[in-house]
Amino acid sequence: MRIGYVCKYVPAEALEAMGAHMERIEPDESLVSFDAAESCMHANVCSFAKATFETVLSGNLDGIVLTTCCDSMRRLADALRAQAPNLFIHVLDVPRDTGEAACALFERRVAELLSSYGKFANATFSEKKLFAQLGGTPCPAEGTCDSSLELDYARLHSEAAQPSFRLAKSSSVSQSFASSNQAADSAAWSEGCEASERNADEAVAAPRVDNALQPQTHFSPAMPNVGIAGARANAEIKRILESHGVNIALDITCTNASRRFVPQKADTLAHYAHDVLTQLPCARMRDISPRKAFFDHVLPQIDGLVFHTVQFCDMYSYEYSDLKRTSPAPILALETDCTVQSHGQMLTRLEAFLESIGASQKEHLASQKGSPMSKTATFVVGLDSGSTSTNAVVMNEAREIVASVVIRTGAKAGASAERAYREALERAGIAPDQIACTIATGYGRVSIPFADENVTEISCHGRGAHYFNPAVRTILDIGGQDSKAIHVNATGEVTDFAMNDKCAAGTGRFLEMIARSLEISLDELGPAALESKKHLEIASMCSVFAESEVISLIANNEEKPDIAAGVCRAVAGKAYSLMRRVGLEGAYMMTGGVAQNPGVVRAVEELIGEKLFICEDPEIVGATGAALLALEKSV
Amino acid sequence: MRPFADPIHRYMDHVRRTCETDPERAWRDALIGFRGNTWGSRHLPNFHAARGYHKLEAYTLGLVSDQLGHESNYVWGNVFAPVEIMECFGLGTVSVECLASFFSGYHAAPYFIDRAQESGIAPTLCTYHKTVMGMMETGVLHAPRLAVTTSCACDGNLSTFRQLGQRMDVPMVLLDVPYDNDDASIDYLADQLRELARTLEELTGVPFDESRLSHLLEVERETNILAWEFMRLQAEHFYPAEFIHHLFFVLAMQLSAGSEELHDLLRFMVDDIKRAPRLQGDKILWVHLMPYYQQSLKAAFDYSPAHQIVAVDMAFCTMSDLDDADPFRALAKKLIGNAMNGPYERKLVLVDRLLDATHADGVIHFCHWGCKQSSGGSALLREHLHEAGVPLLQLDGDGIDERNSHDGQIKTRLEAFFEVLEAKRAEGAAQGGNVNEESTAQGGTAETKGGAR
């Protein structure tokens, strides 16, 4: 029987001891829509739950064991029961407490699960089998079993179907750490850890809580160490990080059940249930102080933390909010929705984060084409391939812009980039062999094969802004399909950034939509807003709703300038929210196409109570930053 | 229009602005506004609403406004906290959802929500929770000495209360309400409730009196019978109410469970409604939260003889027999038996019971932004009512943040739904049958599509 599960509190080993083949559900990364899930649940439930729904319905599983970890999972169980009545669908109630009473209740619920699975699969459970499953068999002596078992679910179910578990002598990997709750002992703790860290690339056990179930950490002395925390992260995040030369030092996302058991001969099930319930708590448990202790311990040792959340899963955002205030390591909040569409956004955010922590080591850059400046090659090019416009800047050795080009991005980003490149060179009056290095940035940066390197638009805007005005600390960039706020330090390095989610509200595209409704051109919208005499509020946060709101205002015979001003204020409000997230530090600069809209500019200025610095051509700031980076590569 | 509307709006505006500029003063001035509102409700006439609802309004407003400002007299709770135990110690319970709602009355919710989101809280979280988190972030919120929350019906409770507790230094009692409804779960929760009583003994220095708790449950049992009777009568008589009054009914039933005053009020309402004229219009069963500010819904339901809300499921979802000799076990049964706890099937059973009692013509299910447990079951509810032949309107919106719902769209859906009801009624009349036994296999459901993003 193939039984799926998604939560680390599922007693997978006990079910395996009954012959079940347990599969942790990895939502198919080719998922493009949640049509079935949304019609059988609702659009606004957790994307991971929706993805699991689609996977179970389309998969070859005989059943699934869910837990009461959150409301979305509860409803997922209800929906699956209705849609797949022949499957084994069990909801395991996991107490939020871990005290004696809770452990007893949990053991009971686990036993009920095993019994109900037994009926479904015609299988029986025995504690002896569980003991063996947990690695208890090779015990040298009866009753004094001290061999511990390291069980990593990911490895367990890897394609190669390696031996299910790896036995590890507990003394070789785990230190005798004191309880994480006792501050007095934390020094002993750290010493233990440091001792292990000296053994390069050796697995280091994290501090123990109350039992031996600890998340594994793995620090590299040579590579940047990045951790992953938060809700269920898909394999893509790890792949991206690893392909950028990053060591994943830890992964404590909620379904990553990498844990070690010490099976007990007597009362095997009770001990096992206790161990499952008392592992490093997930965010829905009552006492999450072990998580805090764990973070206190590991955060100073890593270069950055990717904090992953799933769209419509709110559980971990509280922890993020805490860590954001207190963490010594930089944190990237990364939200995905378990579909293939989020890949592009994810890549930009992860790359920008790695750039900002100085940990970007892209594999494909090992063989850099960019050559040092020579007598003939004395120019560099920065190319910014955005969704609306493609911008190119040619720069000379003296950091002067010799030519710049802004063209509309057509259907093919690569072709537009090539055209912008050619036109920029023509305008500068130079030949391609005079270019020492070309760096691409922007949404389409990966589709420009002739570029020597690509860097995210976040870093490039930081550099570009610093070039135009070194006093700038906060940059607001509103482009065609996304908007972002970037904080830079005195040297133009990005220290923090925030981007809009997968939504058009607050972007150039939104303004375009509204201009169309108002039957004016996009260029007229801003100046029109300045003529406004009446204060109209566009309340909706959703661009689709906002558009209907505008249509209602038109129907009510409101004046176009008043509507335009209301829309500009709505966009400015969204932008201001992003700016607050990176801290409001002056001076302020605005870049991107929307910086040419005087209505939005005025509305933003009203909110920040300060003038925005806007350079002559705000669309070329990203390309200028790319050119500056190209220049650095070439000297 | 009530008297003094203009100065009231000006004062509301003042409080909203003050939230942004002077948090300490905003709290003080907001409380003055709440008390003024309660005073107005207690002493000024409302010629449109039935007497029972007018009294209920004053009573419910007082539940919150009389407590705030006296931070040692109440604890924070969620809407399903066991208020009966707090009452044994003379402590009130102010639900944080209610607090959020009250502040949103000043149109201050968007400001708080934005501040919460900027601190890293997920935009997809329930807006009640985000509002309270924002109130904490901005320093507007004042804290009592203790917070008591249950893990039901919402998975955000624990996290929100934990965050509030940690940041504002308020100890928190979390009652872990199990999913399965059996003796093992009841014992597990009853022990937690006993522990809560001990905690409150320590906090207040008042010894716990179990017979007092038993008495409160006795009153609650009688109140429940009256509430059920009132609901049945409301399906027969036109008893004019504002849209928001139905929300007050929910709040009073949950936050004032066991109160003699509520018992007497319901006694009055049962007697009073019997004298009201027969209801000619459509009977609507409302499921889940109510966006009290929504203009289109107010326009359709305020004092309307054409469409009367006859029951809101949230007022009845925790109703249990409370028949255990051990009051802690009785309370534990009530909390675990909540129709919002456990599988969605329980909610469907409750909806069936309410339909049986009221013969409602149609059901409106309001999917509040961020509420996964209610939204997640919407397809099951649709399927279930389709089979039962009861027209259903599902609305996506937001209980307090106007930016997450589109009034024009709700209005259109609502009007279409009323047309469906009307057609069904005409069809029923033509066939001389009971409309409730007619099938709507021809597609008597309407839905709002998509959702605010």
UniProtKB/TrEMBL annotation, chain A:
Cofactors required: [4Fe-4S] cluster
Keywords: Iron, Iron-sulfur, Metal-binding
Annotated GO MF terms: iron-sulfur cluster binding; metal ion binding
One Pfam family named in its UniProt record: BcrAD_BadFG
Superkingdom in the source lineage: Bacteria
SUPFAM superfamilies listed in its UniProt record: Actin-like ATPase domain (SSF53067)
InterPro entries given in the database record: ATPase_BadF, ATPase_NBD, CoA_E_activase_dom, Dehydratase_Activator_Redct, FldB/FldC_alpha/beta
Domain (ATPase BadF/BadG/BcrA/BcrD type) ranges: 381-630
Iron-sulfur in keyword set: yes
UniProt-listed PANTHER family: BIFUNCTIONAL PROTEIN [INCLUDES 2-HYDROXYACYL-COA DEHYDRATASE (N-TER) AND ITS ACTIVATOR DOMAIN (C_TERM) (PTHR32329:SF2), BIFUNCTIONAL PROTEIN [INCLUDES 2-HYDROXYACYL-COA DEHYDRATASE (N-TER) AND ITS ACTIVATOR DOMAIN (C_TERM)-RELATED (PTHR32329)
Protein name: 3-hydroxyacyl-ACP dehydratase
Species of origin: Ellagibacter isourolithinifaciens
TrEMBL record, chain B:
Superkingdom field: Bacteria
InterPro entries for the chain: FldB/FldC_alpha/beta (IPR010327)
Annotated region (Disordered), positions in chain: 428-453
Pfam families attached to this UniProt entry: HGD-D
Polar residues bias (residue ranges): 433-445
Record family assignment: Belongs to the FldB/FldC dehydratase alpha/beta subunit family.
Name this protein carries in UniProt: 2-hydroxyacyl-CoA dehydratase
Organism: Ellagibacter isourolithinifaciens
